[in-house]
Amino acid sequence: MSSRAPLVVANWKMNKTAREAAAFAEEFLALRPSLPDSVGVAIAPAFPALERLGRLLTHTQILLAAQDVHTETKGANTGEVSAPMLKDLGVAMALVGHSERRRDRKEDEAAFTRKIERLVENAISPLYCVGETLEERDGGKTDDVLARQMTALDPFGSLPAGLVIAYEPVWAIGTGRAASPAMAVEAHRQIRSLLAKRYGEGVAATVRILYGGSVTPANAATLFGEEEIDGGLVGGASLVPADFAALVKAAG
Ligand code: PGA
Q: pTM of the entire structure?
C-alpha cells in the first residue's frame, strides 16, 4: 500500500460559468458525505468562477484550484492572472504545463519553471502536467519526452512544496481512449525515478503522481487500483457531479 493520499482533480477547462459552477458545487456537496474522506478533491474552474466556487467550498475539505498562472507576479501583461491574485481568492493548487497550453500557447519548460516558482512563493501547490503525443509514443520517444518535460524542475534544489505531477498522454485526453493501467504505471515509474534522481528516493516516494486522459467512472477503479497511480486529473467526466463523485469513490 502506498502511503500517499489519493487525489482527484477536476479540470473543467473552458466550461461552466460562475453560476454553473455554483450549481455543480451544490449538487456535489450533497453527495460528499457518501464519499471517502481519505481522498483529496480539488476543482479547477475557469478564472471567472474561482471566487464564487471558492466561497462555496470554504469549510469543506475540497481544494480550489486554478487552471494556469502567469510567470510574473505583476505588471504589463494584459489578460493574465498572477499567483498572488489566485492566492487572494483562496486558490490552493494550480495546473502548470497542461498539454493544451503546451500546444496552443507554445509554452515551454523555462516558462513552467517560472510558473512553479511563482506558485511556491505564494504557497500554492503546483500540479505539473507531462505526457507524450501519439506521434512521440509511436516513435518510441515517450521516455525522452517525459525526461525533457521534467527538466522544468531542474532549477529547484529541493522538491517544490506541494508538488503534484499529472501524467497525461496527449492521445488519451478527451478521446475516450485512456491509457491501459500497465502503460500508465510504466510512465509513472519513470517519472518517479526522475524525481528520485533529483531529490532522492525517500522524497520521490512522497510525491503524488496522478493519471489523466479519458478517466471515466467505468475505468477509474482499474486505473486508481494501481499502487503507482495516486488518483486522477479529469476533464470531461468531472463536469457532472454524480460522475465526479463516482471517480472520488473509485479512488478511495
Ligand atoms: P479528459 O481530460 O478527462 O477529458 O480526457 C483530461 C485533462 O485534459 O486534464
A: 0.97
